[in-house]
Amino acid sequence: MEAIMRNMFQALGKSHSANKMAKRFGLRFGAARFVAGESIQQAIEAVRGLNSDGRLATLDHLGEFVFSEEEANESAEMCINTLEAIAASGVNSNLSLKMTSLGLDISKDLCLQNMRRILDCAKKHGNFVRIDMEDYEHCQITLDILHELRDEYDNVGTVIQAYLYRSEQDIRDLNGIHANLRLVKGAYKESPKVAFPEKKDVDDNYKKIIKQHLLNGNYAAIASHDEAVINEMKAFIRDMKISGDQFEFQMLYGIREDLQKQLVAEGYRVRAYVPYGIDWFGYFMRRLAERPANVWFVLKNFFK
């Protein structure tokens, strides 16, 4: 039953018609738990609240369905506006983005043009930009673009997903540019031809690539809500005498608030991934697919 629900939410998250319908209702029925708001002002206030209790943030203006150059340029402008709002407000937050929202599926050149505009703005304000990893078909081109951008910018990194067979080799390759990486298990539905189908194999590979990346001396954003993984990484970091300046723990906005605050109290750097914007539906569906138990939270809100 859980697998059926997971597949259903993943399919809904890719549905253009479902996304369009969701916009009519706004952040209702529980989505506001995971999404900071539809406006940049709401997102900045959410980050301010996180900063007040010692947490950092990375803001992501949600948008995954871009079909024209005009829409891609508008999405890039929203990323720039987000960076400007972060700087103007004084909150402590990076920027995360998806390159499909910047026109990657239209033209690589268009996407690069928009990425350079965004990175120039981030550099002006001394900020950092994280390129989110999307589904498998976008993996190689994302890494190709990262390599190209790293020839010009040092304030950009990406994400590696542990459920892909290729990720261990990608970690080795990215060591050549000392990439700042956010390391995750992975949230997209992928074929067993390219991804581990069993949870245990994903978990084992996840811990392996984190350790590999840290031992290479590179910055790791350890993105997990799994306490067993977090505790193992804390012990590894302590045993290997890895500096606190080389890593941070990351979690999603609205998930495991207790654990986020506990890690801050223990002296660890913690960053919350804070999404906002009107195109929230695909992100929300992936959160439900990751943990179908969240559906009961949504249903309770629906019937209130």
Summarize the topology.
Elements: H1 2-13, H2 16-25, H3 40-52, E1 56-61, H4 69-89, E2 93-97, H5 108-124, E3 129-131, H6 139-150, E4 156-161, H7 167-174, E5 181-184, H8 199-215, E6 220-223, H9 227-239, E7 247-252, H10 257-265, E8 270-276, H11 281-290, H12 294-302
Parallel strand pairs: 1-2, 1-8, 2-3, 3-4, 4-5, 5-6, 6-7, 7-8
Task: Kindly list the characteristics that best describe this protein.
304 residues, alpha/beta, TIM Barrel, eight-stranded parallel β-barrel, 8 strands, disordered C terminus, nucleotide-binding
Structure commentary:
- The structure is a single chain.
- Helix 5 (108-124) links the parallel strand 2 and strand 3 (129-131).
- This protein has an 8-stranded parallel β-barrel, surrounded by 7 helices.
- It has a single domain (36-279), classed as TIM Barrel, CATH 3.20.20.
- It has helices spanning 2-13, 16-25, 40-52, 69-89, 108-124, 139-150, 167-174, 199-215, 227-239, 257-265, 281-290, 294-302, and strands at residues 56-61, 93-97, 129-131, 156-161, 181-184, 220-223, 247-252, 270-276.
- The protein has 304 residues and is α/β, with parallel strands linked by helices.
- Keywords: FAD, Flavoprotein, Nucleotide-binding, Oxidoreductase, Proline metabolism.
- Substrate binds at residues 98, 286-287.
- FAD binds at residues 133, 161, 185-187, 199, 224-225.
